[in-house]
Amino acid sequence: MCESGEVDVNAAEGWIRAIAASVGEQADELTRLDAAIGDADHGTNLRRGFTAVLEMLDDLEPKAVGEVFSAIGRTLISKVGGASGPLYGSAFRAIGAALPEPSADDQQLLAALQAGLAAITRLGKASPGDKTIVDAYAPAVAAFERERSWSAAADAAEEGARATISLQARKGRASYLGERSIGHQDPGATSTALIFRALATTLQPPRKSPS
Q: What's CA 168's distance to the chain center, in Å?
């Protein structure tokens, strides 16, 4: 039995606002991680992108939940530099395309997230173990499919991000470092974990303690 229920436009916007807040809080840490194996701009780029997303949301009047995600995808592609803008933007556009109704249940959202993962892997040509976004995204989707819990999905994403420390990068800028990329947590996987934790916080609030 799913614990989080239906996702409507308000819940979708709540998830995106939670992501923006988390990115704002963690932007410096994301940039610090990126400085070790990338261009040192991951946090800065995402903060700029999600600031633009919040401005866009204030003017958006969506009739379907997918319209929220499609608009976010377009904004991220246009506002976020580096690889993360096209990757996250493509994922959210795919999520939006899979959710044409005013609301979605957990199974429909899972299918949409799987479409988002497919968009990322198609564009980035990355597989699990390549030290990328996929190393957090794929375990999160698998965990929800298995346990029907967004908290479990967020836990799996965070575990996947931590597991990238021991991996050698095979895709993206970090791959140029070869073995020197080992020992550093991937910033893209880390921001993906933030996205899934924001989803869990929005759709699956903590259970009330027994009275």
A: 22
